[in-house]
Amino acid sequence: MRQGWMGLAVLAIGAVLAGPGAAETRTAVVAGGCFWCVEKDFEGVPGVTSVVSGYSGGPAGKATYDQVTGGGTGHYEAVEITYDSDRLSYDELLRLFYRSIDPTDAGGQFCDRGDSYRTAIFVQGPEERAAAAAATKAAAAALGQPVATKILPLKGFYPAEDYHQDYYKSRDIILTRFGPRSKATAYKLYRNACGRDQRLRELWGQEAVFAY
């Protein structure tokens, strides 16, 4: 009897913790060019609990790095952002996303060219589509230019290979054109050479919250 009572108590406590006041975890999938950069940017946003680099936009079964960057798969380099919606709204997440990219560029992002590096917001249902449309309209008004970022239905998200995850902070050593470097150092060299932050400052000025 005591064991049964304890089990009921645990269930009751669990119900309270999962009740209406509990935090709601949601996911958002966006494409902003190099997924290493978008992952790095959003992992530092308050309310974001995790960011995974991957692929979205194309059919299942064609989502490896070599296939996607080789073209023809329909996939974008994308990230799946998991966040606490009590701390970070979807609207605010999209506002920040636009300020992390060059939404006027229809051919890729910064030094990365090609279809897999284009920008997109992958939406789940009419509520997210409406929010994405509003964010796109606001970005176009803020920049005074047309926005090329697409709003697409989310068909699926496929995590990238393990070696792409948390690339920006990995201490694994790789060979670069500058010699052996950690992935973290190689990432900084790449981001600087690609001109991402310079272009963000040109576009967004003080609103370029991720530029450094």
Overview features:
single chain, 212 residues, alpha+beta, Peptide Methionine Sulfoxide Reductase, Chain A, six-stranded mixed β-sheet, two-stranded antiparallel ribbon, 7 helices, disordered N terminus
Topology:
Blueprint: H1 2-17, E1 25-32, H2 35-43, E2 48-56, H3 65-70, E3 76-84, H4 90-98, E4 108-109, E5 112-113, E6 119-123, H5 126-143, E7 150-153, E8 157-159, E9 173-176, E10 179-182, H6 183-194, H7 196-204
Parallel strand pairs: 6-7
Antiparallel strand pairs: 1-3, 1-6, 2-3, 2-8, 4-5, 9-10
Word description of this protein:
- With 212 residues, the chain is an alpha+beta fold.
- The chain has a domain at 23-164: Peptide Methionine Sulfoxide Reductase, Chain A.
- It contains 7 helices and 10 strands.
- Residues 1-19 have low confidence and may be disordered.
Q: Which architecture name of the domain at 23-164 does CATH use? A: 2-Layer Sandwich
Shape by Cα distribution: globular
> Major sheet: size, sense and barrel closure?
6 strands, mixed
Indicate the CATH topology of the domain at 23-164.
Peptide Methionine Sulfoxide Reductase, Chain A
Determine the CATH superfamily of the domain at 23-164.
Peptide methionine sulphoxide reductase MsrA
β-sheet strand percentage: 15-25%
How confident is the prediction overall: mean pLDDT? 91
Number of helices: 7
Strand order of the largest sheet: 7-6-1-3-2-8
User: Which stretches are poorly predicted, pLDDT < 50 over at least 5 residues?
Assistant: 1-19
* Radius of gyration over all CA atoms, rounded: 20 Å
CATH class of the domain at 23-164: Alpha Beta
Estimated structural class:
alpha+beta
How many beta-strand runs?
10
Helical percentage: 25-40%
Distance between the termini: 62 Å
SSE ordering? HEHEHEHEEEHEEEEHH
